[in-house]
């Protein structure tokens, strides 16, 4: 563990009173329980040690907090649903946590523009439900949609299971309001579809992990709802066959999703979630495809492609959903993996390369880890349709955590050297945060990193916004 233990006496009465004046007495917390709850994300490497936790209720209160932070040289850590996996929302060095839970209004729904305005604290599933109630669809989806917040999704440019069809979060942000490190409120793009009037600062903020400012509101685009979704799970003999299946189906159909997982991942989920195997025949890897059924012809096409893949030796067995309930059960085989393997405290890496290079990329990564640590179990899954794979190394029960983390540090270096050779990314969708900043140079040139630092100084001249995340100034 790193960081320091919270010192509840560290905050001065003057600072405490000033924070309370900004957001209200009942919205400032300095107790250990609040520090533990609000001071970290899903990572457990750093001990949370904030100075205080505050819950503003408006953009104006966020501005007041930033101005207070500037006057007293306080650091601020924006906090959303705290579901991140790179320690981007961790406050471990006496920062003030700005939790955005109260900014949860959904307003200004516009069916013509297909947009809706959301506070940063709106939970992803709430936006999805709101869109459905209006006859529309918000397509960005992932396992943590029930607790992640829109502001956090924007700050990490969240991806998930629908990227192959609908893209990343940035593709759905029509407008954005952000409080900068100078306390200014920027209203960016204002819902426009076409706007070539200079630089699009909105896109700089998306994926910046709160280092440029605090997202307080967003205008989000909506889509038409998909029609009669069907799910197909196919067993394949190797990763190359998975890519052949992807090429075959993508060349003939518009896929909503194309996911993959390994046999070990399936075994873990079946045992610990009480699910059934999709079919009796074991396979090295499994592909999960989702597609719309506009007519019977769509299912006929999917089955014809399935038969072709079997004939080519790319698929050993498969199953297609016959009902909504069965489709949901098949999705659980993929979506329940993260929850299932959490009991082994896995070392996780979300990495990417171009789609065509994934089989060789994955094979190299697995070979280097397996050769050095044959006792480690490796679980693979991911969004193979967009080149993003998730490496999960499970901690053996008898191995002390400290030794496991030390060994995984070696794994990271080896993995990222492979990422660099394949011109890929050390973080496909989870962000950089604290955990990956030492490896940023594997994906970004020194010139790029220097330009990022310069951009941060424009938005955040005093360096108070989520300091130490992505890179050090």
UniProtKB/TrEMBL annotation:
The species this protein was found in: Kineobactrum sediminis
Pfam (any one): FAD-oxidase_C
Entry similarity comment: Belongs to the FAD-binding oxidoreductase/transferase type 4 family.
Designated name of the protein: D-2-hydroxyglutarate dehydrogenase
Catalyses which reaction(s): (R)-2-hydroxyglutarate + A = 2-oxoglutarate + AH2
Source species, domain of life: Bacteria
Cofactor: FAD
Keywords: FAD, Flavoprotein, Metal-binding, Oxidoreductase, Zinc
Single GO MF descriptor: (R)-2-hydroxyglutarate dehydrogenase activity
High-level lineage: Bacteria, Pseudomonadati, Pseudomonadota, Gammaproteobacteria, Cellvibrionales
Domain FAD-binding PCMH-type: 46-225
Oligomer status and interactors: Homodimer.
EC id: 1.1.99.39
PANTHER family: D-2-HYDROXYGLUTARATE DEHYDROGENASE, MITOCHONDRIAL
GO BP term, example: respiratory electron transport chain
């Amino acid at each position: 563990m790193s960081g320091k233990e919270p010192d509840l006496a560290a905050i001065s009465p003057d600072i405490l009173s000033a924070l309370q004046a900004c957001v209200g007495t009942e919205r400032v917390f300095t107790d250990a329980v609040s520090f533990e709850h609000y001071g970290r994300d899903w990572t457990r490497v750093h001990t949370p040690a904030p100075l205080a936790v505050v819950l503003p209720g408006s953009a104006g209160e966020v501005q007041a907090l930033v101005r207070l932070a500037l006057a007293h040289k306080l650091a601020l850590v924006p906090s959303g649903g705290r579901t991140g996996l790179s320690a981007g929302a961790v406050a471990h060095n006496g920062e003030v946590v700005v939790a955005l839970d109260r900014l949860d209004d959904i307003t200004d729904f516009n069916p013509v523009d297909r947009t809706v305005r959301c506070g940063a604290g709106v939970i992803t599933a709430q936006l999805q439900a709101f869109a459905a109630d209006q006859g529309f669809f918000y397509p960005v989806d992932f396992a943590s949609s029930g607790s992640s917040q829109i502001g956090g999704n924007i700050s990490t440019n969240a991806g998930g299971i629908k990227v192959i069809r609908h893209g990343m979060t940035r593709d759905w942000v029509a407008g954005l309001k952000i409080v900068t490190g100078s306390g200014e409120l920027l209203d960016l793009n204002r819902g426009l579809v076409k706007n070539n009037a200079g630089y699009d600062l909105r896109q700089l903020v998306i994926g910046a992990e709160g280092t440029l400012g605090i997202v307080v509101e967003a205008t989000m685009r909506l889509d038409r709802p998909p029609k009669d979704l069907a799910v197909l799970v196919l067993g394949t003999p190797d990763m190359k066959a998975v890519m052949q299946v992807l090429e075959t189906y993508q060349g003939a159909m518009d896929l909503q999703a194309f996911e993959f997982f390994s046999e070990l991942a399936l075994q873990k989920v079946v045992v610990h979630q009480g699910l059934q195997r999709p079919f009796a025949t074991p396979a090295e890897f499994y592909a999960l495809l989702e597609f719309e059924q506009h007519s019977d012809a769509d299912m006929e096409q999917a089955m014809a492609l399935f038969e072709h893949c079997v004939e080519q030796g790319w698929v050993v067995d498969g199953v297609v959903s016959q009902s909504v309930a069965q489709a949901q059960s098949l999705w659980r085989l993929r979506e329940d993996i993260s929850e299932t393997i959490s009991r082994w405290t896995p070392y996780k890496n979300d990495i990417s390369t171009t789609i065509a290079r994934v089989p060789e990329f994955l094979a190299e990564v697995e070979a280097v880890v397996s050769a050095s640590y044959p006792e480690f179990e490796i679980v693979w899954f991911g969004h193979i349709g967009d080149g993003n794979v998730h490496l999960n190394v499970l901690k053996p029960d008898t191995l002390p955590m400290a030794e496991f983390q030390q060994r995984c540090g070696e794994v990271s270096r080896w993995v990222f050297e492979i990422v660099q050779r394949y011109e890929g990314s050390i973080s496909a969708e989870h962000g950089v945060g604290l955990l990956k900043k030492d490896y940023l140079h594997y994906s970004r040139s020194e010139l790029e990193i220097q330009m990022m630092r310069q951009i941060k100084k424009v938005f955040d001249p005093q360096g108070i916004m989520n300091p130490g995340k992505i890179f050090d100034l």
